[in-house]
Write a structure and sequence with these properties.
Blueprint (H helix, E strand, L loop, with lengths): L1 E2 L9 E2 L23 H10 L2 H5 L18 H19 L3 H10 L8 H11 L8 H12 L13 H7 L5 H5 L3 H8 L5 H24 L5 H4 L3 H13 L5 H31 L4 H6 L9 H18 L3 H23 L6 H28 L3 H12 L6
This protein binds magnesium ion.
Length: about 400
């Protein structure tokens, strides 16, 4: 099934993997890299981007300054990439591409995780809304300012396809071939499908881990979730006296292992049945080929629902969610009413966009500015704008 492509600089690729010689390419043509493959170059560009560095101070569930023990978006992205590369290596997918997608997938996230995204989406409701996947694409296509010859990072089509995991029909219509797949309901590459599942595996597992260690969840209540109870029993059978962090992590590592094994088995089964010849056949397939089996999908959904009820709506998390929404909403209102409160570059762009596209153009620049903030920068800006005695 696997073969070494001519001039390959990586592991063996299956025929249905993304290959650079079959790529749709870059929006702005560039000479090929000398010592790397094209997707390696994409991965490297993501790592060197300023949006990637800021992920260290952005969070998903917990606010960054609450403690150093919790996942940040940076460590989350690394965990997603690790999980996805493992699976890609087994199935014969393009590890460099999958890694580039995983490392870039959260670049467009606002400060304060989903609370920030919901608040910004609210602020933008009259101006086209705010979607974090679409924003990740804006970051790599437009907002990063690094190269003389083009805006953004000028990534390969397949990397951009993977970054744009979901997209509303309204946004899709403005994106050409990249958006067309949402309108046609076609599949993305297997690497993109895999990055998507690896994201779910990573965050559900690490939210269990962080939630237990933070004392927001208890092992006893998590035992309501069948897959957790089963893995907890398995650990205690082998290590009857284990407790504390080691017990938690022995469960979490089994959870990740169980989900990863299942994705490998089920995806292999689906690929064998569909026999896609190449990436185009993958895109034309009736449904995703990278997937959980039905029983594990159900078990995983049960865990997800539990986390939604108990962790994301825990009073301590909710308190943070409400504060975060207020901060993002207040910042938007202040900057949108007075664009000169933003740094000069953003203010100048907002002025130009307002001339060209009206209020929606101005609001989009304000949203870009806020979305790029880290948790702590957003808090600092809020204090500078609204609290007496802060003139920073
Ligand atoms: Mg993610």
């Amino acid at each position: 099934m696997n073969e070494q492509p001519a001039g390959s600089r990586g592991p063996a690729l299956a025929r249905f993997a993304a290959r650079e010689e079959q790529s749709v390419g870059r929006r702005h043509p560039e000479p090929p890299p000398t010592h790397r493959g094209e997707y390696q170059r994409d991965r490297d560009r993501v790592i060197h981007s300023s949006a990637f560095r800021r992920l260290v101070y952005k969070t998903q569930v917990f606010v960054n300054h609450e403690g150093d023990l919790y996942r940040t978006r940076l460590t989350h992205s690394l965990e997603v990439a690790q999980i996805a590369r493992t699976v890609a290596g087994v199935i014969g997918l393009n590890e460099y591409l999958v890694e580039a997608i995983c490392l870039a997938h959260d670049l467009g996230h606002t400060p304060f995780g989903h609370a920030g995204q919901d608040a910004l989406n609210d602020c933008m409701r009259d101006f086209g809304g705010f979607e974090h996947n679409y924003q990740s694409l804006r970051v790599v296509d437009k907002l990063e300012e690094k190269y003389a010859d083009f805006p953004g990072l000028n990534l390969m089509y397949e990397t951009r396809e993977g970054v744009l995991k979901h997209c509303s029909a309204a946004h899709a219509r403005g994106l050409g071939a990249l958006g067309q797949r949402f309108l046609d309901k076609r599949q993305p590459s297997l690497e993109a499908q895999l990055a998507n599942l690896a994201d779910e595996i990573a965050y559900n597992s690490h939210d269990v881990d962080d939630g237990l260690r933070a004392g927001l969840l208890e092992i006893d209540e998590l035992r309501q979730v069948a897959i957790f109870a089963e893995l907890h029993d398995a650990v205690l059978e082998r290590y009857p006296d284990l407790h504390g962090r080691r017990l938690i992590y022995e469960i979490v590592r089994r959870l990740i292992g169980r989900l990863v094994d299942d994705v490998i088995d089920e995806s292999t089964r689906r690929i064998d049945a569909a026999e896609p010849d190449d990436i185009d056949a993958v895109r034309d397939a009736a449904g995703p080929l990278i997937a959980f089996s039905q029983p594990v999908a159900t078990a995983h959904l049960e865990l997800k629902r539990f986390l939604m009820q108990r962790l994301y709506r825990h009073p301590r998390v909710l308190r943070m969610t409400i504060k975060a929404g207020r901060i993002v909403g207040s910042l938007f209102e202040a900057f949108n009413n007075e664009i000169r409160l933003m740094p000069k570059g953003f203010a100048d762009t907002a002025e130009t966009r307002q001339r060209e596209h009206g209020e929606a153009g101005r609001a989009r620049v304000v949203a870009d500015y806020i979305a790029g903030m880290t948790d702590r920068y957003a808090i600092l800006e809020y204090e500078r704008l609204f609290l007496p005695g802060e003139d920073g």
